[in-house]
Fold each of these.
Amino acid sequence: MNQLLYSKLSSLFKVEPSLATSIGQIQLDRPVMLASGILGISLDVFNRLYRSGAGAVVTKSLSTEPWEGYPNPTIFSVKGGGWINAVGLSNPGAPNFAKMIEPNQEVPIVVSLVGSIPEDFEMMIQQFENCKVIAYELNLSCPHVAKVGLEVGDDPELVRKIVTIAKNTTDIPIIAKVGLGTTHYLNTVNTAIDSGIDAITAINTVRAMAIDVETQRPILSNKFGGLSGTPIKPIALRCVYEISSKHDIPIIGCGGVSTWEDAVEFFLAGASAIQLGSAVGNDWIDVFSEINNGILQYMKRKNYSSIKDMVGLAKKS
Amino acid sequence: MQRNHNHTTIVTIEKVIDETPTVRTLIFSDDRMSNVLPGQFAMVWIPGVNELPMSVMISKEPGKAAFTVRKHGPASTGLFNVKEGQQIGIRGPYGNSFDLKEGKLLLVGGGTGLVPMMRLLSFVKSTDDVTVLIGAKSKDEVFFEDLANNMLKNNPHKVIVSTDDGSYGEKGFVTDLVEKLVNESNFDGVYACGPEIMMYKTVRSAHSRNMFVQASLERMMKCGVGICGSCCVGEDLVCRDGTVFDGDHLSSNKEFGHFYRNKAGILEKY
């Protein structure tokens, strides 16, 4: 059908909008993903989240060996909104986890990986050869575990080696999850893009803490944790806008999304999909369908047929 | 302003009662916790030690609530050792609660699993015919027998204790008694809380005879709000979907009674 005819027909018959989106080579039916670290250790739960409207689920960050994480308290609800957590990247280890998700057929799973040296990532990716996985997300930004996460993301040379080895180990797309550390995150983004990364997730939680005034103690057992939820949304949005203004790279927005308006803001800033986690703690898993429905209504009202119609629009203003 | 249940409230322990050499009840004032439903739980912070999920125990005085804890690991031992006048943090209540049936009821509690059963007893109607089964390893570890009898003094009732070693009450596992009782009578509601194998057998016995049965599950729990995922059983999250589940639902859950997850989230067999 030629373009002129299509546009005439479109004006006569309203096009039903589609929630499908693509993050580079990664195709999703719906743009709202579960962020890493949330509910991420059981294939049965992944299936339930997918049925509830999640476009994809990102696993807990996996390490080469099982990790128990920190003792409780591992989470704190901030007055005014948001959470501070220091779960400590507890996870069953990549080899055990790969066995757990091997039966997966249906759910778009993104495997999140955390490690200290490039070879950790190579070993872990090899574990998932027999699993149906749509992408790997390199956790270069967890703010509360030593020797991994942000400490890795803050070292551009290490980022270069990790991205290179990951890209050489698999043909499945590799995403870098960046956050706010001591190195400017845009330097980490630059390095990851130069090394061949397929997409960027921005951002992770922001290093924070809470002190109880009655007992006069830090509340989290690890003292410091990562702040997530509504307080960090404006920061995350700024980062997505900055990255998309400087680079032509697919972006997944992450940080404080709890409503459809938040999701749309991230699209307008340049994200092709969003991840959420804290909102699950407040609104449980109904939040996925609520946000999907809100995005659809908005698209109908604005006459957009696909998510990509919105991506980056705020940069044109 | 109404209190946000996710925000930690600091309370002071007003009284400590030794129930057995390893079990204590800690009483404190808190209106919200004094009114929780049976099956709901709180996340309890012991400053400098840990935070753990606890069923909320009843207290006779209005406005007061309690936790009954058995010393076991570092967290529960930390709570067990809290003295009168010390402060702890609480958030919640979280979770759902038992559906209250009327008529002939069977309540099965093992160890500190008796706590939600005691709270459930405070909701029974005076016309209900109630049987309470208390399971313990030995005579030293039996508690709440007098309390249960006292709470049911105006009801047709039985409180039966069974000890694994036979040092008090009936000898054997409480689940053997459950099997016998559900064979003899048709209960309108069967409720269980305690070690998972005990609950599994109770649910299986009652459900196979088409009786209404519910169990309050316990799992490794970190956040209590459905974020960390540690308490998943199959596709269910104990903190958000439970703690109370119907027998129908549990009977189709392939992990209940067979597997639990360790601190790293690895499935282990019971």
Amino acid sequence: MQGDAQREVPGRYYDGITSRAHRVVLRVENGEACLAGEAERRVPLAQVRVSERTAHAPRKLTFADEACFEPDQRAALEALLHATGHRDSAVVRMQQSWRAVVIALGTLLLVLAVGYLYVLPAGAKLAARLLPVSVERQLGQGLLGVLDRRVFDASKLPAARRAALAQAFARMAPPRDGAPPYQLVFRHSRIGPNAFALPSGDIVLTDQLVELLRDDHAILATLAHELGHLHERHLTRRLIQGSVVAAAGTVLFGDASALVAGLPALALDLRYSREAEQEADDYAAAMLRRNGIGLVHLERLFTALQELEDELGAPPPYLSSHPPSAERLARLRQQLD
Amino acid sequence: MSAVFESAVPALAREERIEFTATGGEYFRIWIVNLLLTIVTLGVYSAWAKVRRNQYFYASTRLAGSTFEYHGKPLAILRGRVVGVILLGAYQAALRYHPPTAGIVLLLIAGVMPWLVWKSLQFALHNSSYRGVRFGFRGSWKGAYLYYLGLPLLAGLTLGLLYPLVHQRIKRFQHAESRYGTTHFAFDAPVGQFYKVYGILVGLLVLGGGVAFGVVAGLAGGVAALNGGTADIAVRAGQVLIVFAGVLGWYAFTLCVVWAFMAILQNLIWNHTQLGPHRFRSTMTWPRLAGLYITNTLAIVCTLGLFIPFAQVRALKYRLESTTLVVAGSLDDVVAAKGGDVNAVGESVADLAGFDLAL
Ligand SMILES: [Zn+2]
């Protein structure tokens, strides 16, 4: 403490009452900050707040009554603080060191990767399971209405054919218990063969797909795939994951650029939906097996889709939400072996 | 020497440019640590992160040799964020699970929003100080409801015709009701000027749109005519290319107009703002603003977001450093709003011990 007496820091003192600058010299004596010059003041060090260290901004001392001291030169105050044993908090020391920041960046990427790859899917799965089915149902209501107005007309299939398909599927047992209630919805599509499940429990099947497949067991395989989506609650999980990713994107990138924030979210979503498709395929395969239907009918579905893709020119696999049919075929064949 | 000169000729106005000494490199370090701690604490640390960031930016802002100081408390900010998250969460949940309720929640949010904005204005100003004297906001909550809810609704009813007026009134409310110590800010930008700036914006967009459409239609038609009116694949490809170039050109033009608009508006607002006898002067130019935004966006995309802190410092630096305070006399005689003046503002200051809503 003896050396402290010799350290003098010239600067300006603002008394907190007016904006007037008082020329003063700061010293530390007996554990007190002493100002001398155009203003005189002694305050115990414990009552002085020191602003956090930064490389370019000056450091300030602020007193309890909001009076403050600004040094003319940062180096002198830095030396005085060092001499009095003032220590920055761990966070401030981290912020000032490039090495710590590189480690922090690495940790950040690691946390994000682990969170995205493991924590997020598991969390969304759990959350979707905890969500009451009634809530989930409301989520998808209205969607079918929108689709009916935009892309669908009433089904042109004979009523008897529709009833037969519905009964055949109703007789099938799901691969494991707890399958949610569903209703089959037949529609004539203006955009070609399609089948999908809505969170409301509607499994939509287009006339065009029924005509394309021509094999009732392949149609049942399609319905099993869609039931898999419902049973695994894929859409709800996807919605939950999407919201979390969007929230994290906002935290990470702020409003700096909608583009930068949007792209990773899109990439993550696409990757997730591919996994969901695989899960639904596996579910369909297990359902067929349990009901004594050959997997060859699932294969026929994929082959039909493959031919359709070849005809239309398939979108590049990494941009497609469904994996290419060739890939699904290969996966299925692997299971068959 | 200069001190002697100042006191000898006090009436002479001198110009004090705002200096911003923050660097992208240092803010990058603060930003990364803030991000890591925010993610690890599931967002709770974001309030502390905001305080650290603001303290750094305020301390890096220098006017006439002195820097600013930020006093916001993390817990108050956290409280504001919790309220914000609850409001938005309620709305999102209602929208998803029961749309009719979402309407009610939206009405509720619209109902409390002016009050929250008013609290946030108070919070932001009350927690800023310069030379040991705090800023403050004296505007009433009634004013907040008028300017942030009443007039915008009216502007909506008139299909936006009143919007420039609303903008001018909001800026007047924000600036004229602010104070530094006991010295009040004043705002005298006329409504007519706002209409002029908005008129130029709309005019440029309409004119640009017309020109772009005319050029594209003319060129596309020309390509077809050159080929004798046949529409083979090459002609169609050429037309698609022209339309694509047209859309791109239109997009670039729109961005430039918007940046020009932002620069002109910023100049208009600050050139008509006064603190006691001292005037502000803003000299933003749109080519520099456009250059700044273009390079920032490109750099952020190319670095996968790592440039964000540098971009923020660059943008803030340009914004702040294009502002000058024309000091009439001396900056020394501002009195803090303490003691006698507290009764006038004290009521709100007391319960605003902190609430900050930043959405
Ligand atoms: Zn699927």
